[in-house]
Structures are given as C-alpha cells and as structure tokens.
C-alpha cells in the first residue's frame, strides 16, 4: 500500500514526458508511455487494493508532504485509500487503461497523437488525485484539474471554433458550480478549522445538530459544485456540447469518470448531508427531475453521441436520486456498472463513427448489424445494460436497487419511485430507438473500414464487465448478495428501508420488466411516427435551458463588456485633463502679444478695482 | 552588512552598463544580466538560509543596517530585512534578470541608457523593499518612478509619451499625498514624544488622535492603491502596460505594482491599526469591485497587452481584499499573490512580447490558429493562462484560495463577490487561448517557435509557478514572521 502515490504519479509523469518529448519519440513511444503509465497504475491499484482488503483497515492514509501549513491550518499532500476511493480508483485506472488502448486505434491517423495522450494521461492523474485526496483541497485540486483536461480534450480539434466554444462552455459552466463549492470550503475552514476529511466530518458531528443552518448551507453549496461537474439540473447544459471532443474522451471523461465526480463528492461528504435533510432531499429532487428531463431529450436526438450524452445525464440523475434517499452504496454500485456499460456504448459508437467515416447522424446509419457484427454484439450488450434488461445485465441490478430504494429507503417517497420507474421506461425507449436506427433497417452509409483488434479487444472486455459486474450485488428477491455494500460500509452508512419490503421489490422488478418490454415495442412503433415538430425541437435542445441562459447571463455580460470596452472610469481623468487644458487655452488666448489689448486690460482692471474701492468707501 | 549591497549593486551596475555601451551594444546586456543574477543569488541564498528560524534577530528582523544621514532632522539611512522584504527582493532580482533577457533582441536603440534605467529602477525597488526610514522610503519611491518614465517614454510603442506622462502624473499625485502624510506623521510624533524622527520603528507606535490617524492613513493608502492599482485609480495601468516595452511591462506588473501592496502591509496596517480596521470594509469593497470590474474589462479588450493589464487590476483586487481581512490565512495569501502574480503576469507579458516580435501586432483579432505554428509557445501560454484563472497546482490558486478563505471570515458577502471573480477570470483567460492559438489561422504562418533564449526565460517561470502551487511552504515559513500583528491578534 505504500506504493499508492504511484497511482496518480504515474499518469502525471506520463503526461509530463509526453509534453517534454513533444513529438520526438514517435507513435510507438507515445503509445508505450500513454498506455503504459495508466496500465501500471491499474496494476498498482489492484495490488494495493488486495493488500488493503487483506489488511482489514478502514482506511490507509499516506502523507507525502505538507502542502499548506499556516498555524493550526494544515493541509497535507495526503492520499487516502479506503473502500470508496478504491472502487473509484479501480474504475478510473482500469476503464481508463482500456480506453487508452482503444484510443491508439481510434486516433491512429491524427497528427496530434502525442498531444491527445498527454491530455488523457493528465486527466487520469487529476481524476485519481480527486478520489484519492485525503482532504477537500486536494480533492478540489483534482476537481479543477479534470475540468482543465475536459476543456483541453473537448476542444482537441481546435480548428473548428464550435469545438472551442463547447470547450469553454464546459469549463465556465462547471466553474460556476466550483465557485459554490469553494465557498463551502471557506465555510468549513471557518467552522472546523480544517479541510482534512476525517477531521471535517468528525467536527461536523460535534458542531452541528441535524438541520443547523450552517451545515445546511454547506451541503447546498457542495451540491452546487456537484451539479456542475456531474451535469445535473440546472448546470447540465455543457455536457451535450462536450461531445465535440474525440469519442474516447466522451467515453472516459464525459461518461465513465469525471462526470461522476459529483456523486463521489456527495458520497464522500455524506455526514454533512445526513446532517442537512433539506439538502439531501434537494439531491434526490435534482436527480429525479434531471433523469426525466434528460431521458426525454435523449429520445429525440439524431446524433448518436448526443443520445449517449443525455443518457449519461439521466443515469447520473439516478445516482443523485440514490444519494438523496440515503441509498449511498446503491449510487456507487450504479456508478460502477454505468462506467462499464456507458464506456462500452461510447467506444462502440466510436467504432461505428470511424467505420462510417465520421458520420454521427443515426438517421444516416442503419443496417449495421450485418456489416459490423462484432460491434453490434457488444453494443447490444451495453444497451441491454443501459435499459436494465432484467437478470442478465449489470445495469438491471444496479438500477433495480435504486428504483426499489427510491420508494423504500428512509428518504424515499412515491414521487421518487414514480420518477425512477418512468425513467426506466424512457431509458428503455431511447435505447431501443437507438439500436433500431443504427443496426436495423436499410443500410444508408457504406462501412469504410472495420475496427481493428486494438479497438475491439477493449470493447469485448467491457462487454464482459457490463454483464458480470452486476452479480456482486444481488437483490433480496434473487439470492441477496451484498458484496459491494458490505465493502463500502466502513465509509458509507447503510441504507435504512422503511416503506414496503421485499414484496415491493418484487413488484418493482415485475413492473420494470413490463415497462422495458413495452418501451421497446413502442420505440419500434414510433420510429416512423410523426412527432410534433415544436415539441421535438424543444426536447432536442434540452428544454430550452441554453436559450434561457443565453438571454439571462451570456448576452448581458457580453453587451456590458462591449459598451464599456474603453473604461468609463478613465473619462473622469481625461475629463479632468480636458478641463485643465481648456482653462489653459482660455488663459493663453489672452496673451496675444497685441499691446493695445494689454493696455486696455490694465486700464479696465484699474477702473474695476478703483470702482470697488470707491463703492465700498462711499456707498454706505 | 549585506543590505546596502542589494541597492548599491544595481545602482553601480547601472552606471557600469551605461559606460559599457561605449565598448559595444551587447556588453551592457551582459553587465545587467550578471548584476541581476548576482542579486538573485545573494537574495535566494539568504532565503535558503533563513528557512531555519534561528537566524531571526529578535522575533522578526533578519538583518538591520543603519547609517546616520541627516541626524538633525532624524533622517538616517536605515535598512532592515524581514521575511516579507526578503521574498520581495528575490522576486525583484528574478524578474529583473528575466527583463534583461527579454530585452536582448527587442531593444536595439541606446542599449546603454536602456540598461542604465532598467538597473536603476531595480535599485529603487530594492530600496523601497528595504528602507525603514520614511524619508528614505519616499526618496526611493521617487527613484523608481523616473527611470520607469524613461523606459516607457523612450522605448515604448506608438502612444508612449501619453502613457508615460499618465503613469508619472498618477503616481506623483499619489506620492505627494504620501509625502504630506509622512510629514504629518513626523510632526504628530514629534509633538507627542518630543523627538523628530523618520524612523519606521519609532513611528510604529505613535500615539495620535483617532481622527488624525484616519486622515494620515488615507494619505498613505491613496498613494499605495494608486500604485496597486485599485479601482477607481487604475486607468493609468492599461496605457502604461500597453505602450511600455516588454521589460517595462514585466517590471511594472511584476514589481512596481507590488510596491503598492508592500506599502499597505508594511506601513498602512502596522502604523495605523485603528484606522485600517475602521476603513477595512470599504477598502475590501473596492478590492472586490476591482476584481469584477477589471475582469469584465479584460474580457472586452482586443489588445493582448491591454487585456493582461486589466487582469492585473482584477488580481490586485484580491490583494486589497486579503490585506484588510486581518487574518493569517488572508495575509499569507496576499504575500503569495504578490509573488505569483508577478510571475504569471510577467510571463504573459513576455508571451505578448514574443508574439509581437513575430507578428508585429498586439491585436487579438489579427491572431488565431497559431497552435500548429507555435506549439511550444502554446503550451507555455496555456500554463500561465491557467495560472491566471487560478487553477490548483499553480501558485496563484494557493494565493487566491488563502485570501478568500481568510477574508470569508471577515466579510462573507464581499468574499462571495470576489469568488465570483474566479468565474470572470475563467471567461477572460480562456478567451486568450481561443483568440491566439485556437481556431483557424488567418494566414499561412511560417513562424519560428520559442528560441533557446525564450525557453530559458520561460522554463524558470513555469518551474516557479508549479513549485509555488504544490510546495508553497518555503514562502509561507519566511512570510510568517513578518505578519502584521493586527493580523495575528484578530485570529480566533
């Protein structure tokens, strides 16, 4: 376990080497460094993870050096390995490695191959720091670091200004959330005098009773940070545009890892949310609404990557819902399965996009099940998992848990249940629609070249994981296995179920099964059905949030900046200068050199002065 | 005995560089570079030594030096070094060396006189950071001003005379108020204690009426916030920066602005603790307005150097917010901000200079799509753009985080406004990258990427900004002892 510093250090080192080498090491060198650093980090994770599980410790902290230490305020470069960070670290390094390998195929012809891997390595390093940091400042370090990499990679193909705009949008919108989070950190510094996770959470228990306004405020501000990074309402607008980046980026950053950072943050600071019931309820409400809105938007998209983007927003909504009702481990479970199947779907989509020569419009695909059978197979597995096809997919087990707990958990209620069930229905519908459009029907675009083994191998591995990962946690109705929730129990409180019981769980499962079937059938029927155009456009544009924000924030800011480009304050000083100069001109005009005027001036002055004197002496 | 060296070295070097121009054009550059590097070596060496606390005389001062000058008026050549001065000296010579390197190709005319002025301004700045006699302080304050006026007025760009004059008038007006306040303090002290003295240590504990203290404090404060510059006294800065040669901009942004911040920490707060607390909220408010206003104007600019100049207004707002929060975190943040802003903004001006050398324009609208032609410069710019928006891992983040975390405890609402400045900083910073390096290029460029000399300038800057971001402790340790007592006392 003493090697855990290598886990984030290796990808950082890889990024540094790739930047310094700046193209002098050839494609092989870049591949070796880029994939190797993440691969070794994954191996170290597995070894450290096994050691950790055998040690029986609740958490292992490695102190590297003092980062900032002022009086009693001490922040160390400390890494923390515990059940929660281990799950995230494993997913990040392992899925990250697979995506790196895949990228060597996907990006093979790109002239900026080295830059791509430098950014990807930097991202993995920052993401690992985020989840391994033992204090909230280090978490924030990683948090902003992944934001930077997201920006760099969304705008990777920088020649198109639209990509640059999408990249900046992602950075700026998430920064709005980060600012809220920063204020939460200030509050924690003020009240607990620390940012170290253990101290903060312990002090919180002593300082505040449940519902204390301060802790509620802190929790709401943290939620602000989480909704920014995890693209939840009301800061979800950046994620669909983020699809401008290369597809492996979408898979790694905008599906599997970075966008779930908000889930990690809330799970990590669960004690603060437990103390603030209203904030925790807000988490659930945000999740429930987001999962429905984004699901509807996914149903009308034409770009395959945007379907997946909205689907990601929607699935993270499920995780938020789980966090909000107190089903902490269910959220982490869904994070893990989602990372596998969504990475699989994105990479599969990437394989299709490359095969069709960068065609992303689903209406120009079709019939691909024959020309790309391998991709079809894995895509189908991923889709089944996303749609939560019962019994055989991991997505079923993780989502089923949330659907049940949305009603059954202590914080749950009927509204959440309804949202979760409805969400499951919508998910199945848009997933089925995607499969039908892409793989069935007439072939509309000819397949250029089939993905090679370097791209297919990660897909097969992820397909296996998308299926098997679900079996570590089985519902009461089917064997009742709780490997994951037991594993994370030292970090995350267990879920308390109050409403209904196993009977409700049975009912929910049956309902889900029925709805998935119904949704698939409906999607098939609706493929050709006309949709009211206005509504379609409204949903497609993500419920008009972008337009609203444009009118409310972007345009006023730009307009204000434009009006005052020349700094109105300077007018005070130039005005002062102008007045002085005017006065000077008036005075110098009298100095004309004409003797007559001077004589006249003297005479007039004498007359005036004399008049005044005489008037004052004799007027009375 | 080392202290006068920091002033004499650049001043004598200045004359030597001028003389050297009789030999050839290059010799003054080498003289200047060697002088700066020597100063850097000595100051950095002292920094390295004093990491251990035992070197501190008494509680705080590392070294003192005193020579009687005009004893009948209580004026002496009194120098003293504490952690704050030391850090500022290291920064002065570091940026001084870089400004010599950055002018290597840019300055072709009258290189002897140029380097005379460059070294002289550094000498003045070193004096400002070391002097503990208020008369002498005013003297050095003016010494900084005149060579800077020449640097802008002779080697500047198109509108250089206007900019030089504006710079001179603003600083001079502030300086005169300070002179009045110094004299006022001198007489108030004399009438209270019977001794006429300009000594900082004596004046520190001057008993005075509350009203008097407030007026005198305002005299000092105005001089320093004009220099900082704070809203609404900032308008000289964009002109001066834009028109100055690159070395001038680096010294302006990196060092001259810091003398304002230094003055606040050294004189305003310790001498007038009551008045400082009385005006604290208003000053912090000015700082927060500066952060947002400067950021918004930075976004609106189309001239690269003008844009960076307005970011300075924004970043210096943090200094005001932090200095008047009277809190150890905020104080350490302010010291960090002075250093990291010097590095990151200095670097951005150097980049602007390098771009100007290649494209002969500062207009952002004329740039775009330069990444393929200048990938190395792109990476370097990215680092400093990220520093400017406060990305963790780079020094500016530590500075701004500490300032905000500290000021939050003093004034939450002002801190919220200042924190919103981070979003504005993101907006204007990313705009730089987009306008210069991304997008499609207007022409087919065949430009040389960073030369060896430029890499040698940029590498230490990048190393410094990353080092300060991940291990700022050497700065914090040294600055700790120089903390104004008002900041220490107000902690819980």
Give descriptors for this structure.
heterodimer, A: 620 residues, mainly alpha, two-stranded antiparallel ribbon, 72% helix, B: 492 residues, 73% helix, 3% strand, globular
Characterise the protein shown here.
The complex is a heterodimer of chains A (620) and B (492). Chain A is mostly helical and 620 residues long. Chain A has 26 helices and four strands. Among the domains of chain A are: 284-529, no CATH class; 566-618, no CATH class. In chain A, the strands form two sheets. A two-stranded antiparallel ribbon of chain A has the order 1-2. In chain A, strands 3-4 form a two-stranded antiparallel sheet. In chain A, strand 3 (473-474) and strand 4 (481-482) form a beta hairpin. In chain A, helix 8 (213-229) runs parallel beside helix 13 (277-300), helix 14 (304-324) packs antiparallel against helix 19 and helix 15 (328-355) runs antiparallel to helix 18 (394-408). Chain B has a domain at 284-492. Helix content of chain B is 73%, strand content 3%. Chain B is built from 19 helices and two strands. In chain B, strands 1-2 form a two-stranded antiparallel ribbon. In chain B, helix 8 (210-227) packs parallel to helix 11. At the A-B interface, strand 1, helix 5, helix 6, helix 24 and helix 25 of A face helix 11, helix 13, helix 14, helix 15 and helix 16 of B.
The residue fraction in helices of chain A comes out at over 70%
Order of helices and strands of chain B: HHEEHHHHHHHHHHHHHHHHH
- How many helices of chain B? 19
Biggest beta-sheet profile of chain A = 2 strands, antiparallel
Mean pLDDT across the residues of chain A is 87
Structural class of chain B: mainly alpha
Unreliable spans of chain B are none
Largest beta sheet: strand ordering of chain B: 1-2
The oligomeric status of these chains comes to heterodimer
End-to-end C-alpha gap of chain B? 39 Å
Largest interface chains and counts: A-B, 51 and 54 residues
Question: How helical, in percent, are the residues of chain B?
Answer: over 70%
* Shape assignment of chain A: globular
Would you count the extended β strands of chain B for me? 2
